[in-house]
Amino acid sequence: MSGQALSTYGKALAIDNKNPRALALMAQMEYGMAQFFGNGSEKACNLAKQSQAIFAGQDKEALKAAMLPTWGRNMADSMVKKCEK
C-alpha cells in the first residue's frame, strides 16, 4: 500500500506543489520506509522542512475565512524534530 500512498501524495503535489499536508504525509511515509530499510532519512527530512516552511508562511485566519484546511502543522513540526535527533 505504500506505493499507492506515495502515488496519491504525488498527485496531490502535482495539483498544488505548495500543499504542506501532502508534503508532511509524504515525509512521514519516506521516514518510515527509510527506518524500515535502514536507509538515510534525508529525503524525508527535506520534505518535512519544506512543509514546515509553507505552514510558517500561511495565515491561519485567512485559511479559516476561505474554509480551507488548517491541520497538519504539528505533524510537520514533529517530523522536523525527529530529523534533528
Q: How would you characterize this protein structure?
A:
The protein is mainly alpha-helical. Helix content is 76%, strand content 0%. It has one domain. It is globular. The model has no long low-confidence stretch (mean pLDDT 94).
Share of helical residues: over 70%
> Beta-strand level of the residues, as a percent range?
under 5%
Largest sheet: none
Number of strands: 0
How many distinct helices? 5
Through-space gap between termini: 28 Å
Mean pLDDT value: 94
The computed structural class is mainly alpha
What's the multimeric state? single chain
Q: What is the domain tally?
A: 1
Query: What is the chain-wise order of helices and strands?
Result: HHHHH
Low-confidence stretches: none
Q: What is the general shape?
A: globular
Radius of gyration: 13 Å
Search tags:
mainly alpha, 0% strand, 85 residues
Brief sketch in words of this structure:
This protein is an all-alpha fold and 85 residues long. The chain has helices spanning 2-15, 20-37, 42-56, 60-65, 73-84.
Write the layout of secondary structure elements.
Elements: H1 2-15, H2 20-37, H3 42-56, H4 60-65, H5 73-84
Helix pairs in contact: 1-2, 2-3, 2-5, 3-5
